[in-house]
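We emphasize that the prediction below concerns an isolated chain of 724 residues; any contacts that depend on oligomerization or on bound cofactors are therefore not represented. The input was used exactly as deposited, without trimming of termini.
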Amino acid sequence: MWRQIHRWAGVILGLLLIFLAVTGSILSVDPLLKRFDRNVHDLGDMTVGDVLRLSAKKNPYFEIDRIRIDYSGRVLLRGADAAGSREVPFNPSNGRLARKDRPEPIMDLVNSLHRNLALGPDGRPITLISVIAMLVLMITGFVLLARRLGGYSRLFGKIKGRGLDKWHTVAGRLLIIPLFITVLSGTWMSLVSNGLVPSGVDDTPEYPETLTQADPVPAAELAVFDTIALSELTELSFPIWSDWWDVYVLRQGGTLSFIDRHSGDILSQESVPFLTRALDLFTLLHTGQGASPWGAIAGLISLSVPFFTVTGFIIWLRRRHPKPRGMVSLANADVVILVGSETGTTWGFAVHLAQQLRDAGKAVHLSGMNKTCHMREDATLLLLAATYGDGTPPSGAAQFLERLPGYQGGQHFAVLGFGDKAFPAYCAFAINCQNALTASGRTSLLPMGDINRRSAQAFTAWGHKLAVPLGLNSLVLDYTPPRPKTRQLELAEREDFTGYDGTASAILRFRAPKKRRLPGFNAGDLLGIVPPQDPVARLYSLASSKREGMVELCVASVKGGICSNYLLGLEPGQQIDAYVEHNPDFRPARRAPTIMIGAGTGIAPFAGMIRNNRKQPMELFFGLRHPDNDFYYRDAIQEWQSDGRLSGFHPAFSRHDDQAYVQDRLRGASDIVAQHLHQGATIMVCGSSRMAQAVAQEIDTISASIGLSIAELRLCGRYLEDIY
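Result of the prediction step, given as a token string:
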């Protein structure tokens, strides 16, 4: 868990963290430069009284209402004269007032970028999320460092390893404390700017009152100010002249003193409020204001963030693919195995194949399919390619077909496809790879093989066929995919339906057995269910979230479907083995409308999302056969419409009345869809691939009417699919 949190916090927010670190480093120079400002003077043994008398002599018409020493050491007087109200630097050696500080456009811009991305108040939450993520990275990194070294007692022991991995760890151990100080202080300041933590400004103590009702004595004539060294002053605020009972407020570090305006007596003293002192401390630690050498050091340390981000990202990329021992370089390989996998499952088969070939005396190279390969001419290329979604390549192989023309060598090849025959586009990507390799002039060693649902038997059979063209007496592949870690869920209730054609279906609701808890999940995540007679899990979209205290599924019988028929045969009280697979990319819009399009049991995730909706407009396009048969969530939909959780409902019955499909309803409501798209709506599609294709065509037409395309919607994350 610690590694996953550390990894994903860095990967997801890496660029933003680099941006904040660089801008912060630029700002850290400012306090150092301010130390050399021409208005910074040696205060020597001057007192506040000296300043008051000198200013009265040299600037008789400038009425002071505050004196303070800023973080650079400048004496600043705030007051008013014929030129108006202003705060200006004061030269204690000659009594002259300098010009009012002029803004520095570049530093002001960098400061705005660092604090809120130059977005004003709207950017502050983004910055807060970033610094919290950085704080999480510090904590998780510390835990991982301790684990790597064998415990917290060995934190200062020798770090083994080499390359980026070692230097990432070495730098982390060296800089974790100063980085933690910088990030923690930045987190506090960001919490204050977002209004989540009080600044302490409003926590002012009650002022005592001057009891004498007489004209006040000029400040320069009060002897008390001759006892206050200017070097020890933080701030002196003058009383309001017309208010006879007001007092002077003197701050020296963490102490507030209240001074009578007639006698100069100290009426009382109090400590500066804790939150004010905390903010001052964290401002000093984060910006270096008041400790410019530390600011410069912190700025340099902040530049390590890009190093950690880049090296961490590279390490993550390297660790994504397993690298078994005994693999050789590409140029020295007899056999090159390339893998295309979305979830990593196919890599288990590939590693086992590589190890068996290595043990058989072959020089083997194992890598991902996105890599451009320059192989020996006599090398054999083996492709293990999974198919994702509706025949599309998995992320680990998305660039293979594009890069194939740049491949060299590997004149003989064999392709093994991985898929699920429950999907229409079974092994479609592997078939495309087979055809593309053949078209490139290479020779296939044997017809394309296929593995249905991670079948260990099919993998073994393919290994026997592959042995002959590779010149091996035998190639025994006995790999069995590891069973996912599951937990038990108990069926609490079921709502049964009989389809228009007699197909059985049901809404099933599971709960955790006694003394156990449900895992964390949201509607739209997936529940992997492992049926007793088959170790391969099937995934179902979740129609509920953990806060509802139940796991809800919508299941329809599939001919020959092992898992669906197993689920539909359960009785309340029986238990299943299951696990949650999070699907964070399939979520409704937070600040814009959501258009939900589903058919049949594809309504499941949308039911859970609508049920938990409180603010955003949601339109549901639901395709089913007949209102008297498979109308899932009929009563709930009416309730959601009446209480406003569902803003629009568009059912399509393919075996009733006008025999319409969801794409027909989309066409009929094109104005509504276009209006929502113009408002930034997200479109979500759940159901069969055939339905999804028809929906995509209709949405492309509608979006074109407002100058968009489905490709653009996909690119910016506004067109989401969960199809099967």
